[in-house]
From TrEMBL:
It comes from the Bacteria. Residues 294-494 form the FAD-dependent protein C-terminal domain. Residues 215-276 form the Amine oxidase domain. One of its GO terms (molecular function) is oxidoreductase activity. InterPro entries: Amino_oxidase, FAD-binding_protein, FAD-depend_C, FAD/NAD-bd_sf. This is Uncharacterized protein. Transmembrane segments: none annotated. Pfam families: Amino_oxidase, FAD-depend_C.
Length: 552
């Protein structure tokens, strides 16, 4: 097969136009084109009213080698747009050995733990997955308990439970990670097997929305179990068993659970997510190497989706191929901070994403249809470990958590102490005056929004930066700084505030057999990259087991 990239056609092109473009690019008679499939479809909306579709297509042609040679000879080397289709087949690296003594453990069943567990199970290594939260259906009830009844379950919520943080989400499935081995394709293939629509394999910004994610996660659980894996819900890991080996190296020998049980294991994947603050503290107390890392804080902003559609797509807004419009914005401020949009959810809702009592955190989600009235995104400011010192001068790698907790508590109080979020009209925020009512844009956050002064909800440098950025964003997207757009806060869980640093073999720098992975370990951001990191963690575990003679 050959892959042709950068085939550009108008949004409204007739169906045969793609085939004709392929034939023209390859200068082929129609009879020599035996078949073709779309490998990727994206759009270029830079010119409003003249949106172009951009295709990559895999083609089956007669005399493939000769065609490739001829086209290559006709094309300047830096303009190559025809190449052999890359081989994206995933190949397992290990098989079980009768010498396997203990089963590998995966802590956490978010996208990272799910894929680590799946790939270990597919290799026959029979992992045990330990998840502190509940099965996804029960978890849904608890999550709605916060959203509808203002009751938070600290062990079963948006952050904790089967499927992890991404289950109640927009289900965006793209990432900017470098992925030479096409592990992202393995993630998408498994999602399709579990019930995701085929289109996630070729559209440039696939998304699946919340309801589908719930049933996909259940499907993947069943697959893992059918392959000999075991999944235990409501099993919180509270401690690590660490011993010194014959070389004097610290080595994991098992995990201790909140229910008092200890499970022996020589290989433990830690796929905790960014919200497991108690578990980070335990790892720190046990001397596992970690360091503070930068992350971002800010607010959610909501606009009518129609404002974003009109600004981005103009007269072509509403076209079914385009769907609800998204955006990606960045502004570098005079105070040296950068403000950017994050986790944009077209046609979605803002959700309560707290996992600790007495704290408020916002995030965003949507359904597959993305047809809610508002567009939402986080508007966040990058912060670094120097900013955390104010909240924890000790220099501890946990200092970022102290900052998060402080501002989440402030938000809880500003919201009225009932899990309502503090909110403000953009017009009032820019004018430096508190909001007493909200305007034409109705916020979607449940349990509710309390109009207030959000300048009190973040550090001054962040408030100043966001005040400078919003009008600048209004120049890129007409209406972005409209007075009635709504800000809610606070957005503090953009990524992990620390890194559980690992070496090239995937193991903790100072604790053998411990494989930190995914977003909480500081090695992923988003569902796809967490899934990819889970696959790599499974491979590192398998390699370690091969070295120990426990796998072949
Ligand atoms: P998590 O998904 O956080 O999973 C970690 C798991 O570990 C949790 O289930 C937790 O209960 C468990 N755990 C923690 N501590 C312990 C312990 N001590 N013992 C046992 N289990 C434990 N990303 C996207 O790419 N697209 C989106 O559209 C998107 N939308 C989002 C919307 C919301 C509301 C949220 C909250 C996040 C969203 N994200 C999105 C981010 C995405 O969900 C995360 O990047 C991703 O889930 C990280 O995967 P992970 O497996 O590393 O961690």
């Amino acid at each position: 097969m050959l892959r042709l990239t950068d085939i550009t056609l108008p949004l409204e092109h007739a169906e045969p136009a793609l085939r004709e473009a392929v034939l023209a690019r390859l200068k082929l008679p129609a009879a020599d084109l035996r078949g073709m499939t779309v490998a990727k479809r994206s759009y270029d909306a830079r010119k409003r009213g003249h949106i172009q579709l951009i295709y990559s297509v895999d083609v089956d042609v007669a005399n493939e080698a000769a065609v490739l040679k001829r086209v290559a000879a006709e094309t300047r080397p830096n303009r190559v747009k025809v190449m052999p289709t890359p081989d994206t087949t995933y190949r397992f690296i290990a098989k079980p050995s009768p010498e396997q003594k203990l089963r590998p453990i995966v802590v956490g069943m978010g996208p990272c733990g799910l894929f680590a567990g799946l790939v270990l199970a597919q290799m026959g290594l029979r992992p045990i997955i330990l998840e502190r939260g509940k099965q996804v259906r029960e978890r849904t009830v608890d999550t709605f308990g916060l959203w509808r009844k203002k009751v938070l379950n600290p062990e079963s919520n948006v952050q904790y439970g089967e499927g992890g943080a991404g289950t109640f989400s927009d289900g965006k499935l793209y990432s900017q990670i470098s992925d030479k081995r096409h592990l992202g394709r393995k993630v998408l293939d498994e999602f399709v097997k579990a019930g995701a629509p085929d289109e996630i394999l070729y559209v440039s910004k696939p998304h699946i929305g919340t309801f589908r994610l719930v049933s996909m996660v259940e499907h993947m659980r069943a697959t893992i179990e059918s392959l000999g894996g075991e999944i235990r819900f409501s099993h919180r890991v509270e401690d690590l068993v660490i011993e010194l080996d014959a070389d004097g190296d610290r080595r994991v020998r098992g995990v201790a659970l909140a229910n008092g049980e200890t499970i022996r294991a020589d290989h433990v994947v830690m796929a905790l997510g960014h919200s497991a603050r108690d578990t980070f503290a335990m790892l720190h107390a046990r001397g596992v190497y970690m360091e503070a890392k930068p992350f971002s804080i800010g607010f959610r902003i909501e606009h009518p989706q129609s404002v974003i559609d009109e600004a981005r797509f103009g007269p072509q807004a509403g076209h079914p191929i385009l769907g609800a419009a998204d955006y990606k914005l960045v502004h570098h401020c005079r105070n040296g901070r950068s403000v950017y949009s994050f986790c944009m959810c077209p046609g979605g809702t803002v959700v309560a994403a707290a996992s600790e009592p007495g704290r408020v955190v916002t995030n965003g989600m949507s359904q597959y249809s993305r047809n809610e009235r508002n567009a939402n995104a986080a508007i966040v400011v990058g912060i670094t470990p120097e900013d955390y010192a104010e909240h924890d001068p000790s220099g501890s790698p946990l200092a970022g958590i102290a900052l998060q907790r402080y501002w989440e508590e402030v938000a809880f109080k500003l919201g009225g102490g009932t899990y309502e979020a503090p909110g403000q009209r953009v017009g009032d925020f820019l004018a430096g005056q508190p909001s007493t009512t909200l305007g034409a844009v109705l916020p979607s956050y449940t349990p509710g929004v309390t109009p207030t002064d959000l300048a009190q909800a973040l550090p001054k440098y962040a408030v100043d930066a966001i005040r400078e950025a919003l009008p600048a964003f209004g120049k890129q997207i007409k209406g972005f700084d409209m007075a009635d757009a709504v800000l809610t806060g606070v957005e503090t869980r953009t990524s992990s505030p620390l890194r559980l640093t690992r070496g090239e073999d995937g193991q903790s720098l100072n604790t053998r057999g411990l494989f930190p992975a995914g977003e909480g370990a500081g090695y992923a951001g988003g569902i796809l990259s967490a899934g990819v990191d889970g696959i790599r963690a499974a491979e590192w575990v398998a390699e370690a087991m091969i070295r120990a003679g426990e796998a072949i």
